[in-house]
Amino acid sequence: MVEASSDVAIIEVTDFDEGDHLKLLDTNLATEIDFIFISDGEPNPSLDKTMLRCAGYHYRQPVDLERVNETLLDIHEYMADSKSHAEPCVTSDLDQFGLLVGSSGTMRKLYRSIRRVAQTEANIFIEGESGSGKELAAHTLHLASPRADKPFIAINCGALSPELIDSELFGHRKGAFTGAHRDHRGVFEQAAEGTLFLDEVTEMPLDHQVKLLRVLETGEFRPVGDSSTKLADVRVIAATNRNPLQAIADDVFREDLYFRLAHFPLKIPPLRHREDDIVGLANHFLAYRNAQEEQHKSLSPEALELIRRHPWPGNVRELKHAIERAYILADDRLLPEHLSLEAATDANASDIPFGVPLEEIEKTAILKTLEQTDGNKTECAQLLGISVKTLYNKLEKYQQPKQE
Questions:
Q1: Which of 59, 185, 309, 343 has the most CB atoms lying inside 10 A of its own CB?
Q2: Verdict on whether the full-model pTM lies above 0.85
Q3: For the domain bounded by 276-346, which CATH number is listed?
Q4: Distance from C-alpha of 48 to C-alpha of 282, rounded to nearest angstrom
Q5: Is the torsion defined by CA of 170, 173, 178, 182 positive or negative?
Q6: The architecture CATH gives domain 350-399
């Protein structure tokens, strides 16, 4: 006699031989169904083998129906909990606009602004914390503009060597300087008729900001070592992770350049101001990885709660990296320990050592933050509250040999 559902089968054993044992295992039912066997108590080697493989329940006559009922209730509760909390994440519920993802009110407001300004030729200045999606917003602006079929070129102004900024922006001719073995097209020429994205523009040295301003005012530039000028037919989108007005007050960013770039300012909200999107984005990134890897992994309720409570100083980029790491470490379910977020949420002043020189504490903080950001200096500087230029100066200082 067999009473079965998709979750449990109750089997009354009368004649159970080796053939029955093999047939049961070959159907893969042992991995999908919980079994309750009821026998007369006579020794049965085949049933013993099945129990070892199926990890089911074996009750002997006379059957205690109350105990069987308790077992069924236990199985039901386990199945209900598994299905309600560990559904594999295969779809995303969030809205998407261009390359941006999110359904919160702040993101919908951003979508409307991007849709309107994308159709114009206005220069756009994007302000947002590191990892919040400034480049994705810039690329979305490009894709929504009449220039969408032309190049989108991005350059990080804070990561450029001061000696090569002119060459990177405007290009150079062969022989213009030592090492210039061939002509080089700068980003203004590479982005011709398209969009040029100047990320972390506030980190550009002041003397080069003057040259950039001149190009924006005249619409012309001259490659290094060339006597002729070229037209700068590009739509410029600039961005920074700093407050541009504070950068102007600190005399590291030209006010006239800011107003030339900021025909239309845009602010990207930090992830902590997008509470409705945090868990949705975690599921979105997990669904994407599941699709890539053809897997069916899920986030545990405890992991989701940790994700909901975490401050996410690194914003969407930090969340994405956390899900990527957890995905690699987890089997079927992503747990809190796979996310590696406790250190960030539990840090306190008691962790600061006593009697250690401030310079050493600063060096340790910088190097550990740089390690946590996978070497991303812009993100590292943002988390530490310093400029990228200051970070480079600190790192250069650490590499210098100590004087005896």
A1: 59
A2: no
A3: 1.10.8.60
A4: 45
A5: positive
A6: Orthogonal Bundle (1.10)
